[in-house]
Design a protein that fits this description.
mainly alpha, 59% helix, elongated
Length: 146
């Protein structure tokens, strides 16, 4: 079984989550289905059964898609003034495609952020990771004889 990397940054953990990978080892899959987070990483065994992403990824996707689509709608309306059916033909599919495309990466990022910060059931794992990071430093520090 591969050993997880000992140096993690929040951004690297989030990037792994965006890619749908285990934030701990970067190799295992975070999802077992489109939006179903796996209970345990198949590579390193990290437990994800207690994550609490809930509706937060959907809220983030709504904000992101809104900030992309609304300025485009306004720009097209101000520049070309097309009929309403053209707006419907353009913006409804774009909104749906962006929403579906962004939902899994955003949920992966939220779960990875919770994991990285030790939130919502990940507290014990974070304490163990922090202790493991400081352990080699404490062992290699030379002692001065008094």
């Amino acid at each position: 079984m591969p050993t997880p990397q000992t140096s993690h940054s929040v951004m690297s953990d989030i990037w792994r989550g965006i890619r749908g990978r285990c934030p701990n080892c970067g190799e295992g899959h975070l999802f077992r289905a489109f939006l179903k987070v796996t209970d345990r990483c198949e590579v390193c065994g990290e437990d994800y059964s207690h994550h609490r992403a809930d509706d937060f990824p959907a809220y983030i996707v709504i904000v992101l898609v809104g900030h992309i689509v609304v300025p485009l709608v306004l720009e097209v309306e101000m520049t070309y003034q097309p009929p309403y059916w053209v707006h419907a033909a353009l913006w409804i599919p774009l909104t749906l495609i962006l929403s579906v495309a962004l939902l899994q990466p955003v949920k992966g990022a939220v779960v990875a952020l919770q994991w990285s910060l030790g939130m919502h059931g990940f507290e014990d794992g974070k304490k163990l990771r922090d202790a493991a990071r400081t352990l080699p430093v404490a062992q290699t520090t030379p002692r001065i004889a008094a």
